[in-house]
Design brief:
Blueprint: E1 2-4, H1 8-12, H2 43-58, E2 63-65, E3 75-81, E4 87-98, E5 107-113, E6 121-127, E7 129-135, E8 141-147, H3 148-161, H4 172-185
Antiparallel strand pairs: 1-8, 2-3, 3-4, 4-7, 5-6, 7-8
Amino acid sequence: MQTHGRGTMAIEELMTGGTVLRVTRWGEAVMHAETKPVTEFDDDLRSLVADMFATMRAAQGVGLAATQVGRDLSLFVYQCPDDDDVVHHGAICNPVVTTPTGKERSLDSTDEGCLSYPGGYQALARPDVATCTGVDPWGEPVTVRGTGLLARCLQHETDHLNGIVFGDRLSSRAFRKLTEQKDAVAHLYPDDWPVTPKKKTADD
């Protein structure tokens, strides 16, 4: 379920064009600090949204937070399938995520990765349903209810805006494995990736 005050067509207008930006990596300060709320819903904000969509496409991701392009704003974009393989897309400012409690709460432990720690994946248990409320790039209310990967995406991206990377939620052992995986392929990702594309391997 997805509701937008402006309708999906307005969001779709921001999903083309845009400039590919460098993806910020874990360890850079902006990735580990709480973001500022969006208060100006102007052309500059919508230009940033277009750039974030372009960057997410280039990096082949399903979600991207503003911190991942070096901006300390409470904003993320997504283009992600739900549990029924229906792809949802949008941009949410000042998001708040809620998940079921008590008997309604069910955890899904699935491999998770992050464009800001490319090449590493580890299982992380998260609620399999999530509802995200906020406003769109025009300041209109928006609500998204996600299942499956979309539920994980909504939680992952909102975490970013609170200064949390998913590695913070892993055990020490799982985080070591994640880092080993990332380090093993680090040479494939240029410093300005995805402005400069990932290097190809023999398997590509």
